C-alpha cells in the first residue's frame, strides 16, 4: 500500500486517539500493508531470507511513528533516563519515544549510536545529550534477527559509562536474537513476533 499525501480525515488519525490495544492492532496492520514483503532477500546480518520487513515504511510513516512512540513508551521501566539505538534503523524509533514521553510529563532524551565514530568535531560514537555517569538507558531496535546490532549499541553505551540491561524491539524474527541478549544478561521484549505479522498478513489476504 502506498502512502497517500492527501489530507487525512480526522476520524482516521488513529495513532493520536486510539487506546493502546486498538493502536497495537492498527500498527500490526500497517506492518502487514507497508513493511512485510515476501521474495528472496539478503539481510544486514548476511543471512538469506524468504521475507523482509522494510521497517522504515512504518517508522517514518506519520501515524506509524506516533503509534510506535505511544506503544513503546509504556514498556520503559520507570527509572529509564534515556532511550538509544544504533543508526539508522533505530533513529526514528528513539525519536518517537522521546517525543511521546513529553506528553506524559516524563521527558526522556534520545541517543543515537553511530556505527563508526565520526571523523570530525568530537569524534563521538554517541549523539545526543550528555547523561550522568551510570545513567540507565534502554536500547530500542527495529527488527531483531541475530541481535548483533542492538548488542553493539549496548556495548557502546556501557563503554561510555551508562547502565544498560534491556533491549526492546518492534519485531523479533525469532532467529537467535533473544537468546543472544539472554546470554549477555539483558532483558528482551518485542512488540510483535514475525509469526504474528505473517499470520495477520495471511488474514488480510496478501
Automatic annotation (TrEMBL):
Pathway of action: Pyrimidine metabolism; UMP biosynthesis via de novo pathway; UMP from orotate: step 1/2
Q: Which cofactor does it need?
A: Mg(2+)
Instruction: Write down the top EC class of this protein.
Output: transferase
Write out the GO biological process terms. Answer: 'de novo' UMP biosynthetic process; pyrimidine nucleobase biosynthetic process
| CDD domains on file | PRTases_typeI (cd06223)
Keywords per UniProt: Glycosyltransferase, Magnesium, Pyrimidine biosynthesis, Transferase
Q: Where does orotate bind?
A: 145, 173
Q: Which top-level group of life is the source organism from?
A: Bacteria
User: Its catalytic activity?
Assistant: orotidine 5'-phosphate + diphosphate = orotate + 5-phospho-alpha-D-ribose 1-diphosphate
- Chain sites annotated for binding 5-phospho-alpha-D-ribose 1-diphosphate: 114-115, 118, 141-149
Q: Which GO terms describe its molecular function?
A: magnesium ion binding; orotate phosphoribosyltransferase activity
| EC number(s) from the headed UniProt entry | 2.4.2.10
The UniProt similarity line reads: Belongs to the purine/pyrimidine phosphoribosyltransferase family. PyrE subfamily.
HAMAP family xrefs = PyrE
Assembly, in brief, is: Homodimer.
**Purpose:** Catalyzes the transfer of a ribosyl phosphate group from 5-phosphoribose 1-diphosphate to orotate, leading to the formation of orotidine monophosphate (OMP).
What is the protein name for this chain?
Orotate phosphoribosyltransferase
Identify the gene encoding this protein: pyrE
Amino acid at each position: 500500500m502506498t502512502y497517500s499525501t492527501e489530507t487525512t480525515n480526522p476520524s482516521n488519525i488513529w495513532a493520536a486517539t486510539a487506546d493502546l490495544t486498538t493502536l497495537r492492532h492498527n500498527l500490526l496492520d500497517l506492518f502487514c500493508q507497508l513493511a512485510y514483503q515476501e521474495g528472496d532477500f539478503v539481510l544486514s546480518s548476511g543471512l538469506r531470507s524468504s521475507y523482509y520487513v522494510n521497517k522504515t515504511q512504518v517508522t517514518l510513516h506519520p501515524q506509524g511513528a506516533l503509534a510506535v512512540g505511544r506503544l513503546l513508551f509504556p514498556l520503559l521501566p520507570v527509572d529509564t533516563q534515556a532511550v538509544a539505538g544504533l543508526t539508522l534503523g533505530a533513529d526514528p524509533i528513539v525519536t518517537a519515544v522521546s517525543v511521546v514521553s513529553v506528553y506524559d510529563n516524563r521527558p526522556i532524551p534520545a541517543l543515537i549510536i553511530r556505527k563508526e565514530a565520526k571523523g570530525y568535531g568530537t569524534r563521538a560514537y554517541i549523539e545526543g545529550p550528555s547523561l550522568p555517569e551510570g545513567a540507565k538507558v534502554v536500547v530500542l531496535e527495529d527488527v531483531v534477527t541475530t541481535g548483533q546490532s542492538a548488542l553493539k549499541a549496548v556495548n557502546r553505551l556501557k563503554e561510555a559509562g551508562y547502565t544498560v540491561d534491556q533491549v526492546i524491539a518492534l519485531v523479533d524474527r525469532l532467529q537467535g536474537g533473544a537468546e543472544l541478549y539472554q546470554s549477555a544478561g539483558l532483558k528482551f521484549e518485542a512488540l510483535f513476533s514475525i509469526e504474528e505479522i505473517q499470520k495477520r498478513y495471511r488474514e488480510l489476504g496478501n
